[in-house]
Amino acid sequence: MLTLTIAPLHIRGQEAMGIPQPLDKNLEYAIRKIKGIKWSGTHKLWYVPLNKEQYHQLRETLKDKVQLDSTLLKQYLEQRKSVQPLMKSKRINRTRAEMLLLHPLNKDNLEAFTQYQELLQLKGYSPQTLKTYCSEFHLLLRLLVKAKVSDLTKQQVQSYLLWLLNKRHYSATHLHTTINALKFYFEQVLGRRREFYDLPRPQRPLKLPPVLAESEVVRIIQQTSNLKHRALLMTAYAAGLRVGELVRLKVKDIDSQRMVIHIHEGKGGKDRMVQLSQVLLTILREYYSKYKPKEYLFEGEGGGAYCVRSAQKVLAQAKIRAKVNKKGSIHLLRHSYATHLLEAGTDIRYIQELLGHNSLKTTLRYTHVSMKNIASIQSPLDRLPL
């Protein structure tokens, strides 16, 4: 008798049970008759919602025609019990938790993943770092299948990193992130000596940050007629904010008495203060009068903080309207803020403090893109008697 495997999957955010399309036309006809059955062109299989009623209906309808293998489904349901707390966590993206369900781990590695995620939270890592590290660590755990991650040797981990570099074509920056994610497990969770995991790291390429001309910033702002969107973009540029800092700003963080903006828990968990522009204060007062935000300065439709993706979309659409072709997200405004300050004569160490950089070396990148410095250099061609 033919065997069909019931596979767990997520379709449009809902749990489902999928069965492959059979070659037998009579069998396919029987499948089509199942209540609630649908065809997924993406996954190339038939599926029904994952629940007891649908499962029993599947078995009852097909019991005399085909043998159903429920191994993957049972494994998924067992895994779901262990991952359920992650699904409810505010600091774990639901998609990441669902990823665990769709790619079940062995018992030891699931326990390792849980310890890993809990320690990241206890140490106060940002939600973005938590999601990134968990994603990188989970990829390794999935590939191990039955092997225990705690048994891996330095040589095996290095081989894995080489595979990421050569086969999955990880960039140097991406590989650095993966190394840091794995180091956290071996050094922080397992408590191993640091030198045990002293992996060779690829040299990061020196990439200059993209920068807008002041005239381009003006066009972007002028082409944004929506008051809320204009206030958001002006705040990002006027204070040189990262997108996470921008959407987490609260009304109380705007100090109009001292003319400063308080940034709480920026990158690395650091607080800092930046100047509050008088022009920005005027637009923010107009914005506040119209929208009356309660807690967060820029609120989403249902209240709470504005969505990062929505903020990025605001800039992307504004660039199109302003006919600005330079690539970059909200961080493009931050790069432009720093470069324009430097070109205006602001001391590099002040810029370092305003940006919240740990190292002056990071801030010094902006000296490479400052047009004031570049424009002051005469080309050798201009000195030739042509």
TrEMBL record:
GO molecular function per UniProt: DNA binding
Pfam families: Phage_int_SAM_4, Phage_integrase
Domain of life (superkingdom): Bacteria
Bilayer-crossing regions: none
The keyword DNA-binding belongs to this UniProt entry's keyword annotation: yes
Ranges for domain Core-binding (CB): 104-190
Biological processes, Gene Ontology terms: DNA integration; DNA recombination
Domain Tyr recombinase: 207-379
Alphabetic keyword roster: DNA integration, DNA recombination, DNA-binding
Record-linked InterPro entries: CB, DNA_brk_join_enz, Integrase-like_cat_sf, Integrase_catalytic, Integrase_recombinase_N, Integrase_SAM-like_N, Tyrosine_recombinase_XerCD
Keyword DNA-binding annotated: yes
PANTHER family cross-referenced by the UniProt entry: PHAGE INTEGRASE-RELATED (PTHR30349), PROPHAGE INTEGRASE INTD-RELATED (PTHR30349:SF64)
Name of this protein: Site-specific integrase
Organism of derivation: Paraflavisolibacter caeni
